[in-house]
Amino acid sequence: VAEGEPSEGREPFELPRFWDALGQTFQVTSQEATKLSLAFSRPPLPSAEDCQKLSEDVQKAILAVATVYYWLPKGQGTTLRKMVRDATTEVVEGMIQLTDTILNAPVESLSQEQLISTGGVWEACEQVSNLPRGEYNQAAVVSALAACLGVVKDAVEEMEHALVEGQDPYGDIMEDEELGFRGNRDTYWSEADRQLLSSCMGLMKASKACLKKVLAAVKAHGKADSPEQIAQLDDLADIANEISPSVDELALSMYPPVNPLAVRLNAAKLASVLKKVLEIAKASHVCPPSEEGWVQFLTGAVDHNMNKVKNFTQGQL
Predict the structure, then answer these.
(1) Which of 50, 60, 213, 261 sits most deeply, having the most CB atoms within 10 A of its CB?
(2) Distance CA 279, CA 271 (A)
(3) HEC string of 38-70?
(4) Would you say residue 10 has pLDDT above 70?
């Protein structure tokens, strides 16, 4: 499941039928996990015959989950397929863990590990109800973009909080011998640092605005009626996934002691990713003429802040 590639089926693919079947197989797996766990929750142990039946039922349930996942063709979109694959893998791994726990647990009582593992399978099986089921790949891409936006929002808020004038960025860390006294300038920002970091904050805020606008455009105009539209949505999700790690890398390099060249390098990486996102969005069907204004504005904002970062660090080169 984790590494295999579903083949394009010969029969016409029906998404509602797929969701029904996936929901049923996850439900059956959850029930089999409960049966297996209860059978080994107290002495006496099940007979060899009962063990055989239990293990066959568990195996059937897991094979059914994997089989239904393999129904989902590539053509439905890689973002949707990745979400279904992750959910399916979690169910299979959960069942493996539960089986291992039962095999290694003492027979006398129901162990805490067994309870946790059983709950883990239930939780994994319930995830099927949270998978995005809107218009094919469009709903999956909306879900992926919203998740990226949430992470970037948190990073921006955290950095804004740390940059409050006069605040010690390491104020929440107790004094210790390694850090030295609070007077150590390596734990503070100089005025020059703050000027450089304000432009970096501009880039981080542009990241948030970029994801917000792309998400709104995909919700408003995203379609999955043709292979080309599905591929465009996947491209957007893929490149948007690069924003969050790039924001995190930039934020980490902004903490004192600041190395201006490291900050410049990470800012350039983020600016490059944002420009790519905006280019891909502009060239796709989610960006009709009515959406071009914000693309232009945000491209300008990225360039403006990156140029300021370059100016502040020019003397370091």
Answers:
(1) 213
(2) 12
(3) HHCCCCCCCCHHHHHHHHHHHHHHHHHHHHHHH
(4) no
Burial 56-77 (b: 16+ CB within 10 A, else e): ebbeebbebbeebbebbeebbb
The residues pairing with 176 across neighbouring beta strands, listed in sequence order, are 180
Could you state, in order of their start, the residue ranges of all structural domains in the chain?
15-128, 137-167+182-313
The Cα 28–Cα 30 span in angstroms is 5
Question: Which CATH superfamily is 137-167+182-313 part of?
Answer: I/LWEQ domain (1.20.1410.10)
pLDDT in tens, 96-140: 999 999 888 766 667 788 889 999 999 999 988 888 776 568 888
Residues in the chain, how many? 317
What pLDDT, in 10s, does the model give residues 161-191? 888 755 556 655 545 555 444 455 566 888 8
Q: Class for domain 15-128, per CATH?
A: mainly alpha
Kindly report the number of other CB atoms within 10 A of residue 251's CB atom.
20
What predicted TM-score, i.e. pTM, was given to this entire model? 0.72
**Closest-CA residue to 168 (of 180, 156, 185, 192):** 185
